[in-house]
Write a structure and sequence with these properties.
This protein is mainly alpha-helical. The protein folds into 2 domains: about 60 residues, no CATH class; about 210 residues. It contains 8 helices and 3 strands. A 3-stranded antiparallel beta sheet has the order 1-2-3. The radius of gyration is 21 Å and the shape is elongated.
Amino acid sequence: MITEKKTDNNMKSNKCDLLPVNLPEEWSCLKAKGPGPFVTKAVLKNAEGESVPWISRNQLKHHFRLDRSKGSTWWAPGAIGWWIGILFSIGATCFAVGAVPAYLTAVGNTYDGLTFFIGSIFFTTAAFLQYLEATNMPHKPLNIKSKEKFRFLAWTPKRIGWWAAAVQFIGTLFFNLNTFTALRSDLSISQITNLVWVPDAYGSICFLIAGSLAWMEVSHALWSWNPRSFSWGIGALNLIGSIFFGISAVGAFVLPDTGLPLNIFLVNMGTFAGAVCFLAAAVLLLPERVQETIKDQQVLTQNQILN
């Protein structure tokens, strides 16, 4: 569990009490910022009296604890972050292709449904790796070397990135159930509602919650504008994609009289647009992984870091 933090007596911020980091002796938290009960960035003071930035997304994506090699932007099979981007890209591509009416006409219902199910497996695999990444996020600042044992499960409720990864993983499991059950052709209307649409709705809600949390992590607030940042772009695209998936779920509501979707256009449009957003976000994960850490080793003023 994440416990104590020291704060500077003259510059103490209440947010520092929520900092999810174990600070070494003689380190302190000067100021912290983040949405709600979460801290997403802070100014720390090291033993030499220098100001050191701590940014949660940066800590999550640049510690390389689970990487055997950094590799390059587009080829790094020894890096967990690379696999997350590649697997999400494949899953999103499957969903985008499956939502195209011409593809359904060409391959038929069975293969179209199988495309969605295969895509959901790639989503779940990527989401699980992302959860492992969040679970094994270092508990100390990046420039402090420490050995921490590998964890498959952890309870770190102070970390907004952990919540985002956990909720998204749960959402992918709902999509596994939804797409697998949809392969059956012998379902009654009530079964279609309960076994296909309900998991779809729950999965979409999970994605919307996870996307909102991830967005707040990169925004450090409810809203921000920083299109030059890979992390900001990923957060924005994932949130927009989650909204489109939610629109698709609304359109997929099963009409009790016919067993057909409420609005097939919304289903296809929402799924396709959401998948394209997820695909773009997944591709951006690759350059984000290898970009320089955000001024980690520099001495910065509080205003430079927190504004």
